[in-house]
Amino acid sequence: MVDVQHYLVVSAALFSLGVIGVMFRRNLIVILMSLELMLNAVNLSFVAFSRYLGSIEGQIFVLFVMVVAAAEVAVGLAIAVAIFRQKGTINVNEINIMKW
Amino acid sequence: MEAVLFYALAAVTLISGVFVVFLRRPVHNVLFMILTMIGLACLFILLHAEFLAMVQIIVYAGAIMVLFLFVIMLLNLDEIVMPPEHRRVRYGIGIVLAMMLVVFLIPVSRGMLSAPPTGASALPAGMTNTEIIARELFTTYLLPFEIASVLLLAAIVGTVIIGKRPTR
């Protein structure tokens, strides 16, 4: 029987990997993928807690997180395509219109 | 048996997660992301969340990652040479910060678990996982469910508006 701490450690490690990706990669697509990684880590801990507490609410929340993730990816990738059309790059260092 | 499966799946998930973050070419990132999703789905099955495991494979590995692949092919990202990122110091700082985050998250999750679980037998016996989720989703969580559908509609409209070429 694997107890819930093990799942939480895996979840924390995946979340931290996602944080590294978001902060230190320059490619917009890879940044979006790292965001997905973080959302999935949270999903894993939701499901682990749902099993641990014997309640189904955690799994319901995972469904809603998936809905939000799908919407976010669709809009984010559309923005990436639009930026690429305008500037010819998706390197986030060169996308600085909104920086002051 | 369960422990062996868990450690194998956790290793697959974490190693492919490392590849997702650190590989250079976006196509390889996406392929390893699919592997991560499949590993997570297997972990969900170990946690007796079969419905979510199937949804994970269908929605994430099947739909979202294909969307990523489409965009990468559309933009010809493999032919665009990103400038090499030669800032070792920045990587070092990032990895140290991430380690600190892990070290912080583990005691927090331990502290939350010191209380004994309540309602451990709240799940009715003799019902499948899908049946329980459906029952809860369409009774208690009906309003959030409908709001989620409106959110998806808004995402569709927004994507089409952003993605279409400007007409002039």
Count of all domains of chain B: 2
Helix/strand-derived category of chain A reads: mainly alpha
Major sheet characteristics of chain A: none
What's the structural domain tally of chain A? Answer: 1
Low-confidence stretches of chain B: none
Strand content of chain B: under 5%
Radius of gyration of chain A: 17 Å
Helix content of chain B: over 70%
Mean pLDDT of chain A: 89
The coarse overall form of chain A would be elongated
Number of strands of chain B: 0
Q: What's the order of the H and E elements of chain A?
A: HHH
Which regions of chain A contain 5 or more consecutive residues with pLDDT less than 50? none
Descriptive terms for the model:
heterodimer; A: 100 residues; mainly alpha; Helix Hairpins; 3 helices; 78% helix; 0% strand; elongated; B: 168 residues; Four Helix Bundle (Hemerythrin (Met), subunit A); 2 domains; 75% helix
Describe the structure.
The complex is a heterodimer of chains A (100) and B (168). With 100 residues, chain A is an all-alpha fold. Chain A has one domain (4-87): Helix Hairpins (Orthogonal Bundle), CATH 1.10.287. Helices cover 78% and strands 0% of the residues of chain A. Chain A has helices at residues 4-24, 28-53, 57-87. In chain A, α1 (4-24) packs antiparallel against α2 and α2 (28-53) runs antiparallel to α3 (57-87). Chain B folds into 2 domains: 1-81, Up-down Bundle (Four Helix Bundle (Hemerythrin (Met), subunit A)), CATH 1.20.120.1200; 127-168. Chain B has 6 helices and no strands. Chain B has helices spanning 2-22, 26-46, 50-75, 88-112, 129-139, 142-163. The termini of chain B are far apart. At the A-B interface, α1, α2 and α3 of A face α1, α2, α3, α4 and α5 of B.
